[in-house]
Structures are given as C-alpha cells and as structure tokens.
Amino acid sequence: MAPWSIDELHGPDGEDWRVPVGELESRITELSNNLAEAGIEAALIQSPVDLYYYAGGRQNGALLIPAVDSAASTEQGGNGATFFVRRSVERAKFEAGADDSCLEIQKFPSLRIFAETLTNMGIDGGIGLQLGEIPADFGQKFKNALASLGEGKDCTAIVHHQRETKSDWELEMMREGAKVQRQMFEAVKQSVTLGATELDLVAAAEEVSRRHGFGGTVQMRRFPLQCDRAVIASGRAGGVPSFFDSAIGGTGPHPMAGMGSGFTKLEENQPILVDLVHVHRGYVVDATRMFSIGGLSEHWLERLSDMVEVSDSVVASLGRGDDCSMAWQIGSELADSMGYGEHLMGMQPDQSRFLGHSVGLQLDESPVVARGFDRPLVDNGVMAIEPKLVFNDGSIGVEDTWVKTNQGMKRVTLDDSYDLIIDC
C-alpha cells in the first residue's frame, strides 16, 4: 500500500482548511516586534494552541521566534522563525504553508545540544518561555537546557495580549462557526420533547457540530482545562453547582464528568437553558438561548427580560470603551437593583463573579468582564457576554458572542431574528 499523502489533509469537499500563510507571517512579525520592545531575545512557543496560531498546526515541537533585533531574525540576516519538530515534520511543513511557508522547519535536535543549536543560529540571550501555559516540570526542563543562553523571561502575557485582537480572517472563522451554531440550536429545538433527557438534546447538537468539522476539544487556558461544549440544564438541574467557574453547573452524567448535561428528563413549563459552543477551524463561538415545553410562567419571563437588560448595559459599556471592570460594575449593580444580587451567575456559596469572557482559540481568553480587569476590550476583541440567574428551581439567561468595532459592539452569534426563548 502506498504511504500517506498530503492530498489526504483537507477539509470538506477537498477545501483547504489551513491557516493562510499571510496570517502566520503577520502574527510572527507582530510577536517579533513585541519581543524586541520587551527586551526578550526570542520566544519559544510550545503551547499547542499557540503553535497553531503561529505555525498553522499543533505538531509536537517548539517554535523559535526571534525578536526583530536579534541576529537570528531574518531582518538581521538570520533564519528567522524556526519550528523544531519531533513529529510529524512532514505535516508541520504542509500545515505551515509548504513551499510558501514563512517558517524554517527542522527536526528537533537532542535537548542536550539545543542551546548550542540556538547559539549557532545567532541567539545571544535568554529565551522567553510560555511558563504560564506549559506544565512546571516541562518548563523547568527547558529552562535548565537553555540556562547557558542567559536568564529567560515568561512571554505568556505577550502572546495572550497579541491574541486579544482578532484579524479579519479570524472574525470570518467565528462568523462561519456561528452559522453552524445556529443549526445546532435548530437541532435542539427539534429534539425538545417530554421525557427526553438533557443528553438527548446534547447529542442532537453534537451531531451537527461534528458533521461540520468540530474536532472534539474546546481549548481552555485555565487549569484543569476541562469544559463541556454543550451545557443543557432543565428545571432543577439548572440550580445544581459544579466545579466549573460558570453560572450554570448542571448535574453531568457521573462524578468524573460532574458538570453540564445529565439524565434529567424534560418536563412541561420548566426552563431549559441551552448553552452551546461551536469551534470552527479552532475558533470558539458561544451562545445561550432558553427553551420550554408549554411555555414559562410570567416570573421566569420577567427574569429573562431583566437579563437582556443587563446584557444590553454591558454591551453598551464595552462599546463606548469603558474598562471591563466598569462594565462588570454597571451590569452587576443593575442586576442587584433588580433584586438578583444573590442569584446572578449562581447562588452562594457558588457564585461566579463575571458577566463576560473573551473567546478566540480558547473559551476563556482575556480580558473578562469582572473586577480587576481595568482596561477596555480592544477593537476587534471578541467577548461572550452572558448574564444568567440561578435559582433552586432552575436557571435562565442569555448569551451572545460580540466583537468590538470602532462603531461599537457587533453581534457575531444569533441575531435578533432568533427568539430568546423557544416554546416547543
């Protein structure tokens, strides 16, 4: 049988789903300039998410990106960004653009001679490592191996800050993801019947998402890096807390998966909260809508209307350039004035203290609409805004993903044509 071929690496109907080379080149150039400003000789990118961001794939290896003023940079006559790959070198070359790639791609040398290899490339100073992303023992191993180059720095924040601003191509990926997500909500709608379980609805949404290319993992930044991509909580299950730092916990199917959807069966006149994430070519979109069988009582509808008002206040605050901490203050104080202080984003002692989280390649990016984030959402920053209320007999709320533009906030996910509550 013939060996594998790069012709087998494609999206649906033969589409090329690689990151455009121009995207990779502009990202590397920006990081190279940022490293020079920070006084860091070079960064060694090892987080799988950031390898995808800069190298177009998450092959096992380490990507060296020299500062623009380093002798190793192309601007100074060096090789420039170099991806040292353990496996698979051939896939790494293809994913980075093949013959059009802006990267040098090499087999990873022995770690014993890695520092010498970098010195021969022109590196003359400590290397920035992603110490806030990689495991401590893994990071220490590389710190020890590269100690002869000088004292390194943590470059995690530099990378995170760069990724806050999405390119036009990244925003297009999110808009495409939102189209799939809408189909997921439609699939849930068709599956809402008396006696169905929360997991039955999740399965309907999952089928749509998988069919459109979801790879099976929602990337997260914070330990323990676990998240259910479809959290559907019906009735009293919506009031069950979990380990996950979010408004809605949910029962989960068993203790090892103790969050999100479980075996709770749908009943009449109960709030069914449906929080769906889709990941399109790596990019996250997040939205929540409410469902019911036979309608909800007036007090539930009033609560939903109030959360829409809170969401609008947060959106307006971010849109005019307020700090994210101010948007939190405005939204949380409004909810408190409505009498929801003990129910906003959970119930004591398990309340979460945020009203929105940035999204991109990860679900929990920065900044966050929370106390302490004393800076605005940047233009082309993307935020999921999700005020929710939790009670013993259920939960209710709204969520959409938004992008900040120079004209204010624009919705990425479900538009006004999609109802906030769907009675099935």
Describe, in plain words, how this protein is organized in 3D:
- The chain has 424 residues and is of the alpha+beta class.
- It folds into 2 domains: 6-163, 3-Layer(aba) Sandwich (Creatine Amidinohydrolase, Chain A, domain 1); 165-423, Creatine Amidinohydrolase, CATH 3.90.230.
- Helix content is 32%, strand content 19%.
- The protein contains 10 helices and 16 strands.
- The strands form 4 sheets. It has a 5-stranded mixed beta sheet with strand order 4-3-2-1-5, sandwiched between helices. Strands 10-9-11-14-15 form a 5-stranded antiparallel beta sheet.
- Strand 12 and strand 13 (394-397) form a beta hairpin.
- It is globular.
Determine the CATH superfamily of the largest domain. Creatinase/methionine aminopeptidase superfamily
CATH topology of the largest domain: Creatine Amidinohydrolase
Strand content: 15-25%
Q: Please state the second-level CATH architecture of the largest domain.
A: Alpha-Beta Complex
Total strands? 16
Q: Give the C-alpha Rg.
A: 23 Å
Strand ordering within the main sheet: 4-3-2-1-5
Report the top-level CATH class of the largest domain: Alpha Beta
Number of helices: 10
Major beta sheet, specifics? 5 strands, mixed
Class of secondary structure makeup: alpha+beta
Q: How would you classify the quaternary structure?
A: single chain
Order of helices and strands: HEHEEHEHEHHHHEEEHHEEEEEEEE
- Stretches where pLDDT is under 50 for at least 5 consecutive residues are none
Helix content: 25-40%
Average pLDDT for all residues = 96
